[in-house]
TrEMBL record:
GO terms for cellular component: cytosol; nucleus. It comes from the Eukaryota. Residues 98-202 form the Helicase ATP-binding domain. Keywords: ATP-binding, Helicase, Hydrolase, Nucleotide-binding, Nucleus, Ribosome biogenesis, RNA-binding, rRNA processing. This is DEAD-domain-containing protein. Residues 67-95 form the DEAD-box RNA helicase Q domain. The lineage of its organism: Eukaryota, Fungi, Dikarya, Ascomycota, Saccharomycotina. One of its GO terms (biological process) is rRNA processing. A motif (Q motif) lies at residues 67-95. It is found in: Nucleus. It comes from Metschnikowia bicuspidata.
């Protein structure tokens, strides 16, 4: 007598990177909110309601905050390079992200390739850097070497009249040359995870 084999019915996997990213973003927001509330309500037995949590993290994604870069209170040096690079109107990710970043808020942004994501965070970083004028101001982590070079190029272009110093710390390049670049105290460091960890360890 042959026993029937038990077949496991597997649920179809959702191969949507957008869905996975949004789910991760929601988890990060929930964890950050829990940590924030835990600090505020230490010793208080009553737990906050779900309605309060939702209202704190809810952000409108349909309405653009500005239509031209001239509407923002950016420094003249930054506006000059924006115009020279022919950035006329902000892309949707830029319109949503830049005002919040200029206000010092944390942002999780999601947009397709070629939508201007790098400028969406580079412009607020450079605006803030102009006010603080300190080295090692920003570390950008890139998943690939090619993307790291592209990000550095965007920073170099936007900060071309600001005296901006940048360096790219990626694999496949001389660690000694990169160490010398770091000794020059760049404002912006663009790096891949493995190589920057190597430099930190040494």
């Amino acid at each position: 007598m042959v026993k029937a084999a038990h077949k496991q019915v597997k649920k179809p996997k959702i191969h949507s990177s957008t869905l996975e990213t949004l789910t991760l973003a929601e988890k990060i927001k929930r964890n950050a909110l829990k940590a924030k509330l835990a600090g505020k309500t230490s010793g208080v037995s009553e737990a906050p309601s779900i309605t309060e949590e939702t209202s704190e993290i809810e952000v409108s994604l349909d309405k653009k905050s500005f239509t031209t870069f001239l509407e923002l209170t950016l420094i003249p040096e930054l506006l000059e390079t924006i115009q020279a690079l022919k950035y006329t109107k902000p892309t949707p990710i830029q319109a949503e992200a830049i005002p919040h970043a200029l206000a010092g808020k944390d942002i999780i942004g999601l947009a397709v390739t070629g939508s201007g994501k790098t400028a969406a965070f580079a412009i607020p970083v450079l605006q803030s850097l102009w006010n603080d004028q300190t080295p090692f101001y920003c570390l950008v982590i890139s998943p690939t070497r090619e993307l790291a070079y592209q990000i550095k190029e965007t920073f170099d272009a936007l900060g071309s009249v600001m005296g901006l110093r940048t360096c790219c710390i990626v694999g496949g390049m001389s660690p000694m040359d990169q160490a010398l670049d770091l000794l020059r105290k760049p404002h912006i460091i663009v790096a891949t995870p493995g190589r920057i960890i190597d430099h930190l360890a040494k």
